[in-house]
Amino acid sequence: MCLPEFKYHPNAYKINIFTPEQGICSVCNKLRELKYDCSFYSIEKPDYICPWCIADGSAAQKYNGQFNDYLGIQDLPDDKLEEILLRTPGYVGWQQEVWLAHCNEPCAFIDYVGSEEIEPYFDEIKDDIECYPEDLIKSSLSKNGSLVGYLFECVKCGKKRLHIDSD
Q: Are 25 and 8 within 8 A, CB to CB?
């Protein structure tokens, strides 16, 4: 069976937010092989959510929950906001995850990045990191350290965007 795709999270299966674990999905009650192991904001916590129930919105509906926090999403039209909140898996961040936008649309989350990975896009992402000293970014930004970069890409024009978070 083909895994569902996420327009705004094209690498969701590559960044360890899904664990290969056999179990019964708390939403669809089907035996599945891939369990979601990232943020889900709801009062009741399901034991197991499969990617199909994220993609079709049934997990968010059944548990009246969200996969991404409303306060961390940049201004978007309601239909795009709902896609990120209710049908797009989150990512792991140090503090509160942020979902960037561009061209009046959510950007796609690409990967966790460090200074080496952002070097080709440095001029493109300068506006996103202007409040950080450039030498700090170049010396301390890493994929899994105390200062982590979260790379996004506009789905319309391809512009790269960067969010930075620290422990």
A: no
Long-range CB pairs of 76-84, under 8 A, 24+ apart, other chains included: 76/101, 76/104, 76/105, 76/106, 77/104, 80/104, 80/105, 80/106, 83/7, 83/8, 84/8
Q: Determine the average pLDDT of the residues in 20-30.
A: 98
Q: Residue 135: how many CA atoms within 13 Å on its side-chain side?
A: 0
Look at the chain and count its residues: 167
> Per-residue pLDDT for 1 more than 80?
no
Coil/strand/helix, residue 11: coil
Handedness of CA 14, 161, 89, 148 (dihedral sign): positive
Mean pLDDT within 129-155:
92
Cα-Cα-Cα-Cα dihedral of 45, 21, 15, 60, to 10°? -30
Contact criterion met (CB below 8 Å) for 41 and 64: no
